[in-house]
Amino acid sequence: MKKTTGMAGTSRHDHEMALKAKHQLSACSDPVEKLRLQCLTRGSSGIKGLSRTFRIMDDNSSRSLDLKEFLKGLSDFGLLLEKEEAMQMFQKLDRDGSGAIDLDEFLVALRPPMSKARKQVVLEAFRKLDRTGDGVITVEDLQGVYNAKHHPRYQNGEWTEEQVFRTFLDNFDSPYDKDGKVTKEEFMNYYCGVSASIDSDVYFILMMKNAWKL
Hints:
two-stranded antiparallel sheet; 5% strand; 59% helix; mainly alpha; 12 helices
């Protein structure tokens, strides 16, 4: 198996996406879309950052948020929504009327939509990296697929192979819970952000295939 030596670089897309999201914000009236665009103005990791803020607030680890926590999370992350809009959004997400919203469902609703073709290529990359097939990417999985020896910090003796792998996994790993394991959901969340910065399906798929030698 060929080892990949790099991964999809996203900074140039991030800048374009942030500008595009700012532009779309001015014409947006749907609260969920407004929140999504505000996250995207912070680049492809914006949604990941918001998710981290909410997880920190979920003190009792219930994986759900009540209205008070929800409003505080938005404000802590610096998102600007009128209180009325935020309440309207909360009600929309609180499908069963329990007075709490499911954190995971909320984050999925916030993810930028991805075409079927894009989802397929992201899953293909995930399956390639998950060599043991257990649904989680670990350092052990990466050892056969990702070549750490090409990393400049490995070459200059600054990092060990293990450190290169851990840093690589941290790109995808949820920031609130860096455990050196990347789930399919975390991998998908990361690429949903990247995908939002790339208009063309063809280009996105090509980028993924090149990055992961698919």
